[in-house]
Amino acid sequence: MFNSLSGRFLVLTIAFVMLAEVLIFVPSVARFREDYLLDRLERAQIASLVLLASDMIDEGLEGELLENAEVYNVVLLRDEARELMLSSPVPSPAVATFDLRNATAAVLIRDALHRLITPGDEVIRVIGDPVRMGGIEIEVTMAAGPLREAMLDYGQRILLLSLVISVITSIFLFLAVRSLMVRPIKNVVRDMTSYCEAPEDARRIIAPTSKVRELREAEQALYDLETQVSAALKQKERLAQLGGAVARISHDLRNILTTAQLFADRVEMSEDPGVQRAVPKLIGSINRAVNLTESTLAFGRAEEPAPRLTRLQLAEVVTDVVESERLATGDHDISYGEDVPVGLMLRADPEQLYRILRNLVRNARQAIEASGKPGEIAVAGREEPAAWVITVTDTGPGLPKKAQDTLFQPFSAGSQKGGTGLGLAIAAELARGHGGRLELARTGPDGTQFAVYLPRGLESGAA
């Protein structure tokens, strides 16, 4: 029960109500003590009136009057003269004097708490104002034991009443919270569970019905989320079906193109000048079509595994990439540069990092080759407080605006003829698998720069 929201609310309600009652208890006990003492002063004044009416009273009557007033003696100040009106033997000297005429609330509370924690039947002196203009001042001597007993009895009754009030209040609050808050929250949880069982079923999407503003906002947000998730699932299913169809078409098309490629190889042997001029273009077109279908099939089947992180030297990976691309450069005037500190170590999957950099460097090389001008490609690496940063910079013609808008989307090769547009998409996916990102740092007529960010937080996480 206490692990539930309503149960904890019940306990907190009881605790805070009891705290409030305790804060009320202290001044109420002080008030009770003051009334108790004022009542004894009034009784003592009434008893002294008997002596004023008759100058002589016997000792028996005087003792009865003092016993009824619960005091030992009474001193009355009248006409600037102090008179001992009634007296009886005092068991011990008075240990304290309390003047009720100018006592503040703080003083009354202090004296009341002191009396509660001080046991014993001490003798105290109490001073106050007579009632009904019966004099200037009245003073009595009395025992403190009965006062403390009366205060304890009053305190017990107050605490018991406070406990009953707190329990009743807590029960009503518990029922109110359970009805107004807990039950609607459980309904939302039930709707969420029902939706999770079959997110494709639009009938299970929650319908905002709560009249409480905060709960209705939560239901509305959940409704929007479930609507978007359902739409995304439907779109994913359509894309999966479309991807399967494209894969099957690409498979059949590859077989057809392979056959056409064989016939083109035979046609290439013809000695007809017209055929000799057309065959290279025909073979080039067929080869590009075959590469496109094979790339489509590979991308459709690809499910990149999670990176197997290990410590490696970045310079070694960059050197392997640059050497591979240098061999593929051929007769083109392209120079390569490496700016990686020899001791720079990072944590990544060696094979996937190689593929990321190879795709970036290859794209840079192909962009420079397509421009027909000499160029440079530089790979640099550095270490920042939050990440390792690897940049690939070229002096190519830059990317057109159309290509920048769909840069990391598959099959969106807007800047290179004959490309499939998968290189950057695969590189970005591999970077995300490392918890990092691939960004286009800058591009323009003087060249393009891509930046790979690999978070250093992976180092502690993998360890």
TrEMBL record:
Keyword tRNA processing among record annotations: no
Coiled coil feature spans: none
InterPro entries documented for this protein: HATPase_C_sf, HATPase_dom, His_kinase_dom, HisK_dim/P_dom, HisK_dim/P_sf, Sig_transdc_His_kin-like_C
Entries under Pfam families matching the protein: HATPase_c, HisKA
Keyword annotations from UniProtKB, A to Z: ATP-binding, Kinase, Membrane, Nucleotide-binding, Phosphoprotein, Transferase, Transmembrane, Transmembrane helix, Two-component regulatory system
EC class: transferase
Lineage: Bacteria, Pseudomonadati, Pseudomonadota, Alphaproteobacteria, Rhodobacterales
PROSITE patterns documented for this protein: HIS_KIN
Signal peptide annotation: none
Protein known as: histidine kinase
Enzyme Commission (EC) number: 2.7.13.3
SUPFAM superfamilies: ATPase domain of HSP90 chaperone/DNA topoisomerase II/histidine kinase, Homodimeric domain of signal transducing histidine kinase
Matches recorded under SMART domains: HATPase_c, HisKA
Catalysed reaction, written as an equation: ATP + protein L-histidine = ADP + protein N-phospho-L-histidine
Spans through the membrane: 6-30, 158-177
Species for this entry: Sinisalibacter aestuarii
Start and end residues of each Histidine kinase domain: 248-458
